[in-house]
Amino acid sequence: MATPRRPDRCPDTATPPASPTEILRGVLTPVGHILWTAIIGGVLFRERRGGRFRFTAPVIVTYLGVSLLHALWDSMNGIAVWLAARTTASEWQRALFALGHMPDPTTEQVHLYTCYDTAGLIVVSLGGLLWLRLLVRRERGAPIPAQLPASPA
Predict the structure, then answer these.
(1) Could you count the other beta carbons within 10 Å of the beta carbon of residue 80?
(2) Which residues lie below 8 Å from residue 49, measured CB to CB, with a gap of 6+?
(3) How many CB atoms lie within 10 A of CB 68?
């Protein structure tokens, strides 16, 4: 007797299919982490003097800003759930939630969640790219700081 196929699983595996959100996160995650590292690294190198790194106000502000981008990225799932529930929850869903039960989302809510999550990830990524572009543009005309002479071999 053949086992019935489950629509929520990939054929012949126990693995659920990847959602569009998981695929988008997989594509954007390297961009996000590399981008945040580039931003903080660029400012850290710009602020060094005499070959030594210094924790100046721009370095600390940049660290806090990059931390905020990372926090928004990691929180986007919850933000998208909250927005989808806030904008589309019916009275019976609100009543169930008030009683401590998590109601099943409608198909519309699932699609809306995906749109909110995708848009949020793209906005965070674009915000980081814009920030990096502003840093690069600002530094194009700046002189290159003098480096320490190389030590003799």
Answers:
(1) 21
(2) 145
(3) 12
Q: Which residues lie across from 52 on neighbouring strands?
A: 49
How far is the C-alpha of 76 from the C-alpha of 122, rounded, in Å?
Answer: 10
> Where would I find the H helices in the chain?
20-46, 57-88, 91-98, 107-139
Q: How far apart are CA 53 and CA 65, in angstroms?
A: 19
Q: Which of helix, strand or coil describes residue 145?
A: coil
Q: Is 113 exposed, middle or buried (0-12, 13-18, 19+ CB in 10 A)?
A: buried
Model pLDDT for residues 56-106, shown as the tens digit of each residue:
999 999 999 999 999 998 899 899 988 998 899 888 888 888 888 888 888
Which phi-psi region, left, alpha or beta, contains residue 50 (left: φ > 0; alpha: ψ -120 to 50)? Answer: left
pTM: 0.70
For residue 62, which of 79, 37, 34, 88 has the smallest C-alpha distance? 37
At residue 100, what is the residue type?
G
